[in-house]
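User: I'll paste a sequence; please echo it back and then give the predicted structure.

Assistant: Echoing your sequence first, then the prediction.
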Amino acid sequence: MPAFVKRTVEGTSGALSESAAVKFTFNGWAKYDNWHFDNAIAHTVSPQTGWNIIEAKFDKRHVVLEGGAIDVNGMGTLLTTEECLLDPQVQVRNPGMTKADMEQALKDNLGVTNVLWLGKGIAGDDTHGHVDDLCRFVNPTTVVLVQEDTPYDANYRALQENRERLEGMHLENGSKIDIIPLPMPEPLVFDGMRLPASYANFYVCNHAVLVPTFNDENDRTALGILSELFTDRPVIGIHAVDLVWGLGTLHCLTHEEPA
């Protein structure tokens, strides 16, 4: 599915604002081979939806990016991780592209002006570092950042480092970011494999915020935190233990589309 942006175009009566569909290339998270039909979805459905597809490119090459790899505040700031987009050896999406190249590609294709790089994603993440399990904007100036309080947990050190990074970062206007900690559920393991269970994988829709829950004592805490942040719509917990066996939950399953 494409990413949707707003842009200004010149019309017969002056400047107009319109939505545009920006299609990044999908390659199975640079891990799986059966991705070709998925990569064709945007062009397949565009005749029915009326989308005008814009191919995301940098220096004449197609740019690989998944929706879960980024999060934006709608004002010019974008969050992502080095593990997902810059690792030179594991699940390499865009071979040969430097950090500066990727930042420019994000700016050129999404209209953002400020790219913030966190380090690693959470343990068990099959995508190798998607930010939608880690840190999400809840309004233009505030993020929730998952935290792990158990020092021996696999997530502890990486999440501490990400918080330290965020504390030194700024938004597109130079202001500091309000950081709200979001707990992690107890580790979920299936067939010996850690699963990427995270309350940060919520989905914001028109009339609700859908939050994955895991039959965990922190479910109520996470829902309470998000309810205080999203005051204009109800926050609804969705049992996601079965979903996370597929290595993703609610945000991984969805994609926003403008009216």
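The helical segments are 36-39, 41-49, 82-85, 99-110, 156-167, 219-229, 241-244, 250-253. The radius of gyration is 18 Å.
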